């Protein structure tokens, strides 16, 4: 049996006062992260935050596209799209 997985488009805002899922921006989820966009720290913080919110191990959340961009695509292993969005509160 294959395990569920999905991809989610994100619009990220680094350097925010706190880590939070803000809502939707078109098809993407808007996510603020406290870490600055410096040396990949915002990407690391984003993936840690998403894994924690989703109740998954960090290795289950990977960045597919957007390493140097605010527009990102992440892969989530272990959840389907609907369940991932439910856990993120959107």
Report on this structure.
With 90 residues, the protein is an alpha+beta fold. The mean pLDDT is 95. 24% of the residues lie in helices and 36% in strands. The N and C termini lie far apart (28 Å). A five-stranded mixed sheet has the order 2-3-1-5-4, with helices on one face. It has a single domain, classed as YggU-like (Conserved Hypothetical Protein Mth637, Chain: A, 2-Layer Sandwich). It is built from two helices and five strands; from the N terminus they run E-E-E-H-E-E-H. The chain is globular, with a radius of gyration of 12 Å.
List keywords for this structure.
single chain; 90 residues; alpha+beta; Conserved Hypothetical Protein Mth637, Chain: A
Give the topology, please:
Layout: E1 5-13, E2 20-25, E3 28-32, H1 41-54, E4 61-65, E5 71-77, H2 81-88
Parallel strand pairs: 1-3
Antiparallel strand pairs: 1-5, 2-3, 4-5
In short:
With 90 residues, this protein is α+β, with helices and mostly antiparallel strands. It starts with a strand and ends with a helix.
- The backbone outline, from C-alpha atoms, is globular
Residue fraction in strands: 35-45%
Largest sheet, spatial ordering of strands? 2-3-1-5-4
**In CATH terms, what is the fold-level topology?**
Conserved Hypothetical Protein Mth637, Chain: A
What is the average of the pLDDT values? 95
Distinct helical segment count: 2
Give a quick account of the main beta sheet: strands, pairing sense, barrel closure.
5 strands, mixed
Architecture, CATH level 2?
A: 2-Layer Sandwich
Helicity level, as a percent range? 10-25%
The CA-CA distance between the termini, in Å, is 28 Å
């Amino acid at each position: 049996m294959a395990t569920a997985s999905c991809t989610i488009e994100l619009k990220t805002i680094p350097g925010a006062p706190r880590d939070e899922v803000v809502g939707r921006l078109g098809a993407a989820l808007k996510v603020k992260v406290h870490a600055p966009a410096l040396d990949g720290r915002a990407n690391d913080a984003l993936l840690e935050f998403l894994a924690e919110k989703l109740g998954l191990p960090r290795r289950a959340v990977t960045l597919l596209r957007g390493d140097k961009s605010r527009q990102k695509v992440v892969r989530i292993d272990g959840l389907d799209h609907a369940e991932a969005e439910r856990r993120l509160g959107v």
